[in-house]
Amino acid sequence: MSTAFPVSPPLARRMAALRSSAIRDLLAVTARPDVVSLAGGLPDPDLVPRERIRDVTARVLHSADALQYTETAGLRSLREVVAARESVRLSAPVDAARVVITHGSQQALSLLAQVLLDPGATVVVEEPAYTGALQVLRAAQARILTVPLDADGMRVDRLADLLSAGERPVLVHTVATFHNPRGVTMSAARRRELVGLADRYGFRVVEDDPYGELYHGGPPPEPVAAHFDRVIRLSSVSKTLAPALRVGAMVAMPDVCAAVELVKQGADLCDSRLTQEIAAELLADEPWLDAHLTGLRDEYGRRAAALRSAVARELGGVATLGAIDGGMFGWLEFVDGTDADALLPVALDHGVAFVPGSAFAVEGVDRGAARLCFTTNTSDRLEDAVARLAAAHRAPIPGAAGGQSTQE
Questions:
Q1: Opening angle at CA 116, ends 132 and 202, nearest 5
Q2: pLDDT (tens digit per residue) in 91-127
Q3: Which residue from 45, 168, 365, 372 lies 20 to 30 Å from 67 (Cα-Cα)?
């Protein structure tokens, strides 16, 4: 009689398309105290309003209800304040019934994929792409097409070419404002062109907007959703208040909200009422929130300027840094043939981390670019980080033919 153990059942087929986020994998390395990280897209913990959150938490906990379940769609008071803020941003009234609160905006993406996408459905994303969206879309077994970005955001003309060639996407995903990873913002003209195409061809637009309030070069154009009701808007307090609150919001038409609420019941029943109560009070205090956001914009603007100055000084002639008018990221492009993937381990040896552009690739592999996050470090630390990066750039790459440096 055989004593062999039975073979374990296989995982679901959708798992074959998934791979770990290169950014998440880097976090273990960047936790080293000797490494200055330009990798993870994190807010500065010293700028998180800890004392205000502590005070609001203590006040909220005076009621036992704060520790109870809440509606699947989210706490009513939070949905109302989100609706009021969105009404201002969209220059049109938004009813609280069109708001669903989620466990961060990433959950909203995941729930939308379940609601809108059958296996094989066509989706269009920007190239380079937000990695969180790619993970969701690959898990949904979507067919992913790409359109490139330039200094004015998504090349909507290239999307029009795909549509003219017969492609019929179910949805188009865009980080239109302060793109992750490129940092660019879609122009107002292209936003209007995008919704015109959505209206003509019948696809939905998912406008992922976690960074829109972090401007320091002047307010960005009106949200894409201001031009068309088929746009689904996603936002989050992770970058403006605190990631640990895990509060995101989706604004969509009632049929999409109802469907998302239905699948959310099967995912987690509801999110934390405690953190929703905290977020609702913070967002509703407009004078405090305006002052807090102004402080973030000013400080992050100084850090973006410090990063630009350091890149010009340390890497001038070998790399260029894209425009930074807000958000959290700068896109560094080497003009001397440097392979950013090969540079990364050398940079880590020099005590600095970044994310290679290839981590955001869908079709092509952009090995000559890197995403730099400027929000986590002070201006002095950013200057030190770029100096370390420049030293790594001058160093030889182990294993390279003839021991050439990254400059060759």
A1: 110
A2: 999 999 999 999 999 999 999 999 999 999 999 999 9
A3: 45
Q: What type of residue sits at position 164? A: S
CA distance 101 to 77: 11
209 and 342 belong to one structural domain: no
3-state DSSP of 341-385: HHHHHHHHHCCEECEEHHHHCCCCCCCCEEEEECCCCCHHHHHHH
Strand partners, 370: 332, 356
Q: Is the peptide bond before 119 cis (omega within 30 degrees of 0)?
A: no
> Which tens digits make up the pLDDT trace of 171-187?
999 999 999 999 999 99
Q: Is residue 230 assigned to a domain?
A: yes
pLDDT tens digit string along 226-264?
999 889 999 999 999 999 999 999 999 999 999 999 999
Last residue of a domain, one of 284, 304, 334: 284
Maximum pairwise Cα distance, the chain? 77
Separation CA 365–CA 359 (nearest Å): 8
Contact yes or no for 216/298 (Cβ under 8 A): yes
